Amino acid sequence: MSTLVMSRRERNKADKAARIFAAARELFMRHGYEAVTTQQIADHADVAVGTVFRYASTKADLLARVMNAELARPQHETSTADAPVEAVMDLLEPLIEVARTQPDNLLHYQQIVLFDRAGAPRDAALSAIDELEREIETLLGRITVTESPRPGVDLTEAARTLFSGLHMAVIRIALGRLDPDDFGDVVRQHVDIVLHGLLTD
Q1: In the chain, where does DSSP find H-type helix?
Q2: Which of 154, 169, 194, 195 is 20 to 30 A from 24, comparing alpha carbons?
Q3: The CATH number fitting domain 2-55, selected from 1.10.10.10, 1.20.1300.10, 1.10.10.60, 3.90.1570.10
Q4: d(C-alpha 68, C-alpha 58), whole Å
Q5: Residue of 8 and 41 predicted with greater confidence
Q6: What integer is the mean pLDDT of 47-67?
Q7: Stated pTM of the model
Q8: Contact predicate 169/183, CB 8 Å
């Protein structure tokens, strides 16, 4: 009997968590992080606001969880593009799409990653960044098998340079110096510059 009660309790908890995160995602995407309150999220999820804080400690915590899911790519997804630049662009497509459609959310997510306290969502975000950098490095390694790499170029640093350029572009969006719709073109230029620095003529 106790096993049945615990099972029902766990199902209820899972249902509430799913409703809260679905509500947060919908409201953040529709209105942007700044315009949404935890009370609105609670109302949309049909739970008490105190219940929201049982599943996420802050609104920033909710955003981190939502954005971690938004930026995640399917496991083992590989690009079918032949051109090196297009192969890297395929890898970065989720981030590019979020920057284009949710620039406010991406900026606040970036601030959480850089400056927020340690915690599970931030740790997951940092792990996702590390994984993306490793995937970029792996892809660059595959490219240099068929192309001619410049001697002494560090693929790890090349991947980090590329990823750092993406985050600087997000800051330019926040400063009003880059239109979100142009983010993909800027990323393509960064990829092209890194690849030309990586490969010989």
Answers
A1: 2-31, 38-45, 49-55, 59-71, 84-101, 103-115, 120-146, 155-174, 183-198
A2: 169
A3: 1.10.10.60
A4: 15
A5: 41
A6: 92
A7: 0.78
A8: yes
